[in-house]
Amino acid sequence: MAKYIIKRLLILIPTLLGVSFIVFALLYMSPGDAALAVAGPDATKETVDAIRENLGLNDPFLIQYLRYLKGIVFEFDLGTSYQTGRSVTDSLLRVFPNTLKLAGGALIIAIVFGITFGIIAAVKKNTIIDSLITAFGMVGLAMPIFWSGLLLIIVFSTRLKVLPASGFSSIRHMIMPWFALGFQSSAVIMRMTRSAMLDVLDKDYIRTARAKGLSKKKVIFVHALKNAMIPVITTIGLQAGSLLGGSILTETIFSIPGIGRLMVDSVKTRDYPMILGGIMLIAVVYCVISIIVDILYGFINPRIKTAKS
C-alpha cells in the first residue's frame, strides 16, 4: 500500500502540470486585456502599455508560462494579484476555510441523506417508499445548484423569514448553502447506494446469513453495506471534488467569501493569477481526495490492499 500511495503522489506532478498548462493557455487566448482592466477604462494608451510591460504580458506565451511555473516549483508562490497587488497564496488561504466549511458541510449532508435513503430504497425495493425515494433522486439530479439555492432563498428567507439569505458567520447562515450544494450530490450517492445494495442483497452469502437466523439489521449493516461501499466511496470521492466546483455558484448566490466567489470576481476583472491559483488549489484538493479514496478501499476490502501493496 505504501508503494501504491507513493506512485499516486508522483502521478500528481504530471496531472497538475497538465492542469496548469491548459488553464494558462485558455486564459492567454481569452479575449480582453488584463492591463486595461487594471488601469481602468479611462486610462491612456501609454499607461496601459506600461502596466502590460510591468506585468510581463508582452512576453511570449511560453516565457510567461515558464515564469509562472518557476514561481510555483521553486518558491511555492502562485503569483501576485493584478488587482490588489497581494500574494495570491495568502488571498486564497484567507478564504479557503469558508470554502472548505461549505463543501465539508454539504458533503456530510449528502453522505448522511444519500446512504440512508439508498439503503431504505434497496430494502424496500418495488414499494411506494422506493418509488418516492427514486423520484427524490431524479429531482435532485435534474435541479441545478443555482436554481435550488434561489428556491431556498425565496422560501425560507423571503416568504418564511426564518433563515438569512446571505453570509456565513453562524449555523443559521450555513443551513441553506449546505443543503443547496449537497442536495444534488445526495441524490447521486443515493442512487449509487441503492444500486450497490440491490446487487449485494442478491448474493449467496446474504441468503446464508439470513438462513443462520441473523437479525435483519446485522445482515444489512454488517454483511451487505460493507461489501456495497466500494462503489459508494468512489461516488463520494467524486462528489467531494465536484462540491468544490459547485461552491463557485453557491458562494456567489449566498454572498459567501470563499474561493468560488473570489474567482468569479477575478474573472470579471481579468485577474489571471488569482484565477489560476484558485483552480490549482481546487485541483490539488481533488487529487488528494482521490488518493484518500484509494486508501479507504484497502480498509474496506483487504484483498484490494494486498493487491496494491
TrEMBL record:
Q: Does the keyword Cell membrane apply?
A: yes
Organism's domain of life?
Bacteria
UniProt KW Chloroplast keyword: no
Membrane spanning residue stretches:
9-29, 102-123, 135-155, 175-193, 228-254, 274-300
Where is this protein found? Cell membrane
ABC transmembrane type-1 domain location, by residue?
Answer: 96-297
> Which family does the record claim for this protein?
Belongs to the binding-protein-dependent transport system permease family.
Provide the protein name.
ABC transporter permease
Q: Alphabetically list the UniProt keywords.
A: Cell membrane, Membrane, Transmembrane, Transmembrane helix, Transport
Q: Which Pfam families match?
A: BPD_transp_1, BPD_transp_1_N
Membrane topology per the entry is: Multi-pass membrane protein
